[in-house]
Amino acid sequence: MPFSTPIWLAPQSSKRPATPIEVNEEVDLVIVGAGFQGLSAAFHAVALGLKVRVIEAAQVGSGASGLNGGQVIPGLKYDPEWLLAHFGPERGEALARFAASTADAVFDLIDHHQLDVPRKRNGWIQAAHTQTASEMQAERHRQWVERGADVALLDARQIAEMTGTSGYVGGWLDRRAGIINPLAFVLELARLASDAGARIAENERVSGLRHETGLWVVSTQSGKAVRAKSVLVATNAYSDGLVPGLRQSLVPLHSFQIATAPLTAAQDAAILPGGHAISDSRRILVYYRKTADGRLAMGGRGRLGLPRSADDWAHIERAMRRVFPALEDTPIERRWYGRVAMTMNHLPHIHEPEPGLLMAAGCQGRGVGLMTALGPYLAHYVTTGDPAALPFPITPIRPIPFHAFRQIGVSAAIAWYRLLDSLER
C-alpha cells in the first residue's frame, strides 16, 4: 500500500511551470511560495500590470495547497459580532464581508476561467457532538442569517440523514461552501497565472533577502538572484528562517488524512448521500468528504514529527470507524499528510517588517478559501501601498515565547483535548 500518497489527481490540462530564473532578472514583484496565496496574488498582480516572478522551493502542489482536504469553507473562527467588537465598526465590517466572500473567491475563479477542477458546491456541515456545541451553532446561525447568508440549523434527524451516522445531536449547514480537488486547483492556478504572464520557477529555494539600492535582491540556494521592487513571502506553514521571527510566530501542525477503497453502492448511498463536506465540533476535530471517484476521505491532526509508519494514521482510522461503523472492513488505500499554520489568536496575520517586504500567514485550517481570497487584496496593496486595501490590519511579527518548546506543549494540549473529547461521547 502506498505510504503518504494523496488521493488527488492532477488535471489532464496541467503543465509544469518552465520559466527558470534569468541572469540579471528584474521584476516588480517576487512571490516566494507557489501555493494558493502566492499563485492567486501572482495572477491578480499581473492583471494589475505588474511583472511577477514566483519562486517555489519544491514543485507546485507538493505543499499544503495540494495536500489538504479540499474543503472550501467561508468565514473565520470568529463570527461577525466578535469581529465588530474587536476591530471596531469599520474594520470589523470589512472583515465580516471578507470572511463571507472567501468561498466565492474560489468557485468564481474556477467558473469564470473554466479551470479544470473537479468540484461540488452544495455546502459544509459543522456537526455538533454535544448540546453545548449545538447551542453555539445556533448563535453563529443567528449572526449569519442577519447578514443574509444561505445557512441552516439541523436537528438530530436531519444531520443523521445528511451524514449517514447517528452520532451527532445537531449541526449547522453553510450552503456557501463546497469541495474541490485541491491539487487540481493549485495546478490550474499555476497555469492561469503563467498564461497571464507570471514567471514560475520550481525547485528553487530562496535563501536570502536583502535591500540594495532601492530594490530587494532575492537570492536562491542555486546561486541565482532576482531584483524586485516588492517581495511577498507566501510560505505560510513552510516558513523557515528567511524572514526573522516569522517561523517563530506560527504553530505548524500536521494534518493527517486517509482515503478508503471505493465505497460499495450501498455504502455510497448511505454515507454522505448529498456529498457534503463535514467537520465536527470536537476540540481535536475530524473532517471528511467523499471524493470524485467514490471514496471516503477523512482527516485530522496528527503527530508533530514526520510520520514513520502507517501506524501514525491509526487515530484517523479509529475515528472513521467510530463515525461510520459500516466501514469497519473497508480497506484504507491512501494515507498522506500536509502542514498547516496556526496563530495564537486564530486569525491570519499580515506583516510588513520593512517597506516592500510583505507576508500573510495563518490559515487556521481554512486555507483554500482564505488564501485564495487574500490574493487580490495583497496584489492591490503592492500596487497602492494603502493599508485600507487589506482586510486584516498590518501587525508586527511577534514570535511566540518559548517557541522552541512548542512541540512539547502542543503535543500535551492535543492529548488533553482528545481526552476531553472522549469523555463527551
UniProtKB/TrEMBL annotation:
Name of protein: FAD-dependent oxidoreductase
Keywords: Oxidoreductase
Residue ranges annotated for the FAD dependent oxidoreductase domain, each copy included: 28-380
PANTHER family found in the cross-reference section: FAD DEPENDENT OXIDOREDUCTASE DOMAIN-CONTAINING PROTEIN, SARCOSINE DEHYDROGENASE-RELATED
Annotated signal peptide: none
Domain of life: Bacteria
Lineage, broadest ranks: Bacteria, Pseudomonadati, Pseudomonadota, Alphaproteobacteria, Hyphomicrobiales
InterPro entries in the record: FAD-dep_OxRdtase, FAD/NAD-bd_sf
Gene Ontology CC terms, in alphabetical order: cytoplasm
Single GO MF descriptor: oxidoreductase activity
Species whose genome carries this gene: Ciceribacter naphthalenivorans
Transmembrane segments: none
